[in-house]
Each structure stands twice: as C-alpha cells, then as structure tokens.
C-alpha cells in the first residue's frame, strides 16, 4: 500500500489538556488501497480538524490508524468514547455483497475487521460511539445492516467528472431523534462527497437524517449514544457551529462515561475495603 499520509501530518499543533474531560479513541484510515494525492489531502485536512476539535472541547485522544493492523482493537473499551472517521469503501462481503462494484475504491477488509472489533468492544463497555462518513457506514454494518454499493443518481451527493468532489447538500434531520436535539434544527447544509450510503438499517438503529432524494444521511440507536452521520462536519468549508455541536455532544457523552466508570471503580474499591475489614465475609461486587 502506498503511504501518502503520515501520522505527523494530521496531528494538530495544539497542547492536549493536562486534565482532559474525556480520553477518546480515534479510529482513522490515513491510507487505503489506491489512495491518490487528492484523497490524501482530504484525509489529512479532515483528520487534523477532527483531532483539533476534540482538543478545543477539552478532550484528549489516541489516534489509531488502520493503515497497518491494530495491535488490540478490543482495547477501544478502555477509552471514554470511540470516534470513527472517513476513508475507503467498506468491503461488500461484510454485508453480503459478493461482487465488487466498478466504482468502489479503497477497500481493505482487514481494516474493516479491525474497525468492527473496536466498535464491538466500545459497545460492550457502554462507551459512546460516533461515526463520520465511512465511520457511519461501519456502525450500520456492525449492527447487521447493508449499504448501497453505488448511488446511481449521485448529483445531490458528490460532484460529477471534472467538478469538485464535495458539494453543499441540504440534509433533513428527523424530528425526535438524538441528532435533532444535538443540532437544534430540522435541516443542515452538509459537506458531502459520497457514492455509497446506508441501505437496510442495522439492528436497533433508526434513520436520523435523510437527503432530499430519500438517501439515509444519519443513523442512531435511540437508546444510547451510537450515532453516525454520512456527511463531513470536520470539513472546515462547512458550518463550524454544526461541527462543534456534534463533537461537543460526543465529548460530553464520553465525559459522562468517564465519570460513570470512575464511580463504578469507587464502589468496587469501597466494597473491597469493607470485605477486608470483615474477614471471612465474601465480597459480592
């Protein structure tokens, strides 16, 4: 695989908080098969903005790059939240499609499997999970959902040949969803450049946003912070307020998860202390 984006290219020049509100695992595909210079530029810019936004909101992070195999994807459970960024297409075999679509690009089945393992670990540990573009698609497939391999009428979603890939797309936010409460509006102008999208919803998920042509642009689990948006709020050419609302809600959820974990550890420690003070009494934690 050609390496076009290095880790040092995406790290923002900002001091990480010494006492962070939350410590976030950020899963990114800095490189993928067939990546070109244009894509590398987007990955670099978007990843740097995402990391900078976390820091600006008072969070720290650890960047996991699936360019190479992850040592232990299940360690995502040890963080306060999991953020999945964009990248290449999800391998169709992950959602029951045997033939690769001619317009597919950047497919890396090993990277997909690492991502699914991280998602499963974060979910099992009840951590908030937020996915962007490819990340949103991974969240749906991880729950058994499927994807549209290629959007035939793509004009709303990305530019045509010889045109800029990214477009400003109106996206309707579904009333009553977590996403609606985060954004505080029923429509956003989203920065989009995608040719795939969520098709059949994964288990327990609902549509949180739709394009004007009905394509799903956001998914969520109503019972927990498991949220994906198809567009790129981390594109600085888009609305900064929407980016801060989305990332802010995620960091707040991660902070709550951190506090909940600390409280649970405190209860376990207290129970253990009481058990030691009463010899012969078994601790039930």
From TrEMBL:
<dbReference type="GO" id="GO:0006598">
    <property type="term" value="P:polyamine catabolic process"/>
</dbReference>
<protein>
    <submittedName>
        <fullName>Glutamine amidotransferase</fullName>
    </submittedName>
</protein>
<dbReference type="Pfam" id="PF07722">
    <property type="entry name" value="Peptidase_C26"/>
</dbReference>
<keyword id="KW-0808">Transferase</keyword>
<dbReference type="GO" id="GO:0033969">
    <property type="term" value="F:gamma-glutamyl-gamma-aminobutyrate hydrolase activity"/>
</dbReference>
<keyword id="KW-0315">Glutamine amidotransferase</keyword>
<feature type="region of interest" description="Disordered">
    <location>
        <begin position="255"/>
        <end position="285"/>
    </location>
</feature>
<dbReference type="GO" id="GO:0016740">
    <property type="term" value="F:transferase activity"/>
</dbReference>
<feature type="compositionally biased region" description="Basic and acidic residues">
    <location>
        <begin position="255"/>
        <end position="279"/>
    </location>
</feature>
<dbReference type="InterPro" id="IPR011697">
    <property type="entry name" value="Peptidase_C26"/>
</dbReference>
<dbReference type="GO" id="GO:0005829">
    <property type="term" value="C:cytosol"/>
</dbReference>
<dbReference type="InterPro" id="IPR029062">
    <property type="entry name" value="Class_I_gatase-like"/>
</dbReference>
<dbReference type="InterPro" id="IPR044668">
    <property type="entry name" value="PuuD-like"/>
</dbReference>
